[in-house]
Amino acid sequence: MPPRVNWKGVFRELRLLATQLQPARFFALYVLLFIIVAAYVVGYIADKLGRIQ
């Protein structure tokens, strides 16, 4: 079972970073976070499909 993620805490930290970082760095961090979440979702779906077959 994949680990649980505290999304409220993640978004709270992103808001804090947005106030402290320059916009270009913040958006780069946001893109990195999106890639991590997308990889997590794809891995989760692949795991579920692997169990069905």
Low-pLDDT regions? none
Report the helical percentage: over 70%
SS-based class: mainly alpha
The coarse overall form would be: elongated
Number of helices: 2
Number of strands: 0
Task: Write a concise keyword list for the protein shown above.
0% strand; elongated
Question: Could you write a compact summary of the structure shown?
Answer:
With 53 residues, the protein is mainly alpha-helical.
Describe the structure.
With 53 residues, the protein is mainly alpha-helical. It has two helices and no strands. It is elongated.
Blueprint of the fold:
Elements lengths: L6 H14 L2 H30 L1
